Amino acid sequence: MVVGLNPSSWPILAPRFDRKGSDPADLVIANARILTCNVSNPRASAVAVKDGRIAFVGGIKGVSDHVGPGTVVINGKGRILTPGFVDNHCHVLWIGGLTGLMTTELFFCESAEEIKEIVLRQAAEHPDSLMVLAQGWKPHVLPQGVSRLELLDSWIGDRAVALMSYMADGWVNSKMLELMEERNPAAFERLEPEKDDSGAYNGLLRQFHAFNPLDFVSIEELGKGAKEMMFQAMGRTLDEALSVGVTTMDDVQNYKAFIPLILEFRDRGGLDKVRARCGYYVPNTVLDDEDAFVEDLAWWKEVGESESDEHLVMGRSVKLYIDGVASNRTTLFFEPYADDPNEYGEAVWTQEGFDRVVEIVDSMDLQACTHCVGDAGINRVINTYERAYKLRPGRDQRHRADHCSGPTREDIERLGKLGVYAAMQPTHFFGDETVEKAYGLKRLQLFQPWRSMEKAGVEMSFGSDWCAGPINPVYGLLVAGTRMNYRFKRNWGPRERIEIEDAIRHWTLDSAKALKMEDDIGSIEVGKYGDMVLWNHNPLKLNSLWFLLTHRLELGAMEDFVDMTIVGGRPVYRQEGSGEQSTLG
Ligand SMILES: [Zn+2]
Question: Distance, CA 225 to ligand 1 centroid (Å)?
Fold first, then answer.
């Protein structure tokens, strides 16, 4: 939640300073415990921001020179101040916008009946949309041995319905299959519709993470006011991120039809309080026409050059997939699934195909961010990046292995040696039992093996993968420091836990590096943007026995740990009742 910011209510430390500093700043925070995430100057107690950038980091004495009559001074009251968090991989704009049309409530449904109720309500609330959309369903709550197509058809037969699982499996009805096939067969095929033994579609789509409603319908066909609803939903998502200390987000996967909407949202001020980087989705069919692909990438770079500003970065990265998710058996393993000895998963690209597509991406100086989760999928990605680095050595491409959930021991070493960026999301520990069953407990001992990766010198960074996990970094920091999983148990590789302070660095400075933005963000350092978070809990204590004993360990119970979030020296979120408004000087 975002509280109105009234400058006249900012806490002032006026009496402590004579307000005659020779180099007055716009904002000074003093008397804080600052974790700068800058290795050459890790701790400080005061910081000054001028014209959006940090002008001073140090102690109370030095900062007084930056306090003039117009300087806003905030009393840190001994609380922790960190850099703004940088989410290395999330979907806050695209899916964030879609939540305006596509309720996320299915995540909380524990039976088919509950799902049905939400879907029928969603249909009633969006009577003029060509599609009834909802997301978040969990595969294990559906009855076994029942045709999902028939089940959904029996709920709604006369309108197209598309439901995305929380792991991005697709489940659609007959009307939706018809609509997709008719409007855009190529985009439909990319979603990999499943067929039953008789060759008929069964209503499931294996690559539904690539679902973009605008491939099939216009924004107007999604109902009256659809665009406004999307913009409002995007705004809500970004406000939620600010309320938990996330100031920069890499929305890794965007589609051509969506780019104009992002630009319009930005032009209307939608990104004024945050920073976002956008990646561009590359489907596995692009090699069918390499010239068109190269042209498309050139277009993407041009968009970046003409549109990027201090709140929005475009045209620098692309998003690829090498495998999928465990729930629909598309995670690619070397050894079979723990709950199915005949299943190894499947790849989106062959090694050769992936070599070629990355060679093209690399030759255009774009950064490849590739979804890879299974050990065999990760291995294929590393092989390709190794080849790309050999073909064009000495460049700073920072190709990324996104998620990088379960690398083999050998590949952990290779990631470090080759300098492949592992963009990881500790919040994936809050999946469900599908992951546990598919990986098996033995393989889970190397699930996101942070300690081993740190030892191997891997360039690791952290994020949320929202909406596949909570955007609040507190949960991920807790996982990093305890290895607690979705059951709040510690049986997934407890030896791979790491220091919380290192986890904070992975979520700030190291994520900034993964976004190639470390010159501007990621640490509290002179010259960078004044993006900071003032905490009311000490995040370094999240894994302490005291914390674990005195807090409710569940999702949703740790939403109020941030007192203030500051972007470019401007407070953009302040917690109600944090005391800030009553301590006027
Ligand atoms: Zn993702």
Answer: 27
Q: Could you tell me if 192 and 249 lie in one domain?
A: no
Is 319:281 a contact under the CB 8 Å cutoff? yes
- Which of the four pLDDT bands, split at 50, 70 and 90, describes residue 4? very low
CA of 431 to the centre of ligand 1 (A): 13
- Helices marked H in 77-173: 94-98, 112-125, 148-155
User: What spacing in Å lies between the alpha carbon of 251 and ligand 1's midpoint?
Assistant: 8
Distance 88 CA to ligand 1 centre (A): 10
Instruction: Give the confidence band of 566 by pLDDT, cuts at 50, 70, 90.
Output: very high
398 and 368 in a single domain? The answer is yes
What is the Å distance from ligand 1's center to 406 Cα? Answer: 16
In a domain, 581, yes or no: no
**185 shares its domain with 290:** no
The whole-angstrom separation of Cα 523 and Cα 49 is 13
- Residue 178 vs residues 125, 134, 516: alpha-carbon distances, Å: 23, 19, 43
What distance in angstroms lies between residue 374's CA and the mean position of ligand 1's atoms?
15
What range does the domain containing 29 cover? 7-84+527-574
Residue 580: pLDDT band by 50, 70, 90 thresholds? Answer: low
Question: For residues 39 and 513, what is the distance between their CA atoms, to the nearest angstrom?
Answer: 14
- Does residue 436 sit within a domain? yes
CA of 312 to the centre of ligand 1 (A): 19
Give 207's contacts (C-beta < 8 A, 6+ positions apart). Answer: 190, 191, 192, 321, 324, 330, 348
Based on the fold, state whether residues 77 and 99 are members of the same structural domain: no
Q: How far is the CA of 89 from the centre of ligand 1 (A)?
A: 6
